[in-house]
Amino acid sequence: MTSGTTRTHLVWDWNGTLLDDTHAVIQATNAAFAEVELAPITLEQYREMYTIPIPRFYERFLGRLPTEAEWERMDGVFHRYYTEQRAACGLTAGAEDLLHEWQRAGRSQSLLSMYGHEQLVPVVRGYGIEPRFVRVEGRTGPSGGSKALHMERHLAALARAGGVDGFSPENVVVIGDALDDAVAAAHVGARAVLYTGGSHSRSSLEGAGVPVVDSLGEAVALAETFSA
After folding, report:
1. Is 70 exposed, middle or buried (0-12, 13-18, 19+ CB in 10 A)?
2. What is the per-residue DSSP string for 31-78?
3. Is residue 193 within 8 Å of 155, Cβ to Cβ?
4. Which Gene3D superfamilies match (predicted)?
């Protein structure tokens, strides 16, 4: 990675992108499924069927939307099991070096996750990478929705804060593992690169009409080519 005059700002996703936690997510999903007597699923099934909002994902297996009571129970079980499993998860291969090199080159990056904000910040801090970001932001409000409005607020906060050279949405590249990351990027006029190591299969991601890569290193290298 070479330094230059790029103004590209990276917005990283957390779960399934920087954090290699997909297997923890599968275990937590199967625990939630057991609450409504659904059979466990495999990683391949998860990647083929995953969608946002999460109740729609559950609908694909239930054959109907979960009731409000079922959703609350399943969501609670999911987060409890995920929290237990997450402690054993590491960062995705190469992530730490990529974050360091991007920052060392004088470039800016932030983190936006649909993981609850109050849980996210100490977790990111625990992995020792919080100083790499100009802003770390998780979901506020109910779980299960889309990232689009959160992305809108995230970029607005970055613009207000200043300190990001030449900041504007067209200079932003979102790196994530879900179709929703591409939707959120398009919502604010940013670009997206999707990574196959997380929640979706490659064939599912390719339907988004944005570049799809098999490593975070490829994602960053591609983001560099988007430089204004």
Report:
1. middle
2. HHHHTTTPPP--HHHHHHH--SSHHHHHHHHHSSPPPHHHHHHHHHHH
3. no
4. HAD superfamily/HAD-like, Putative phosphatase, domain 2
Of 217, 222, 199, 215, the C-alpha closest to 15 is 199
Pick the closest to residue 148 from 122, 130, 117, 174 (CA basis).
174
- In angstroms, rounded to a whole number, what is the distance separating the alpha carbons of residues 173 and 170? 8
pLDDT in tens, 137-176: 999 887 767 899 999 999 999 998 876 766 789 999 999 9
How far is residue 66's CA from residue 161's CA, in Å, rounded to a whole number? 40
* Prediction pTM value: 0.91
- 172 is written with which tokens? 């932003």
Q: Which of 35, 116, 122, 123 is nearest to 79 (CA)?
A: 116
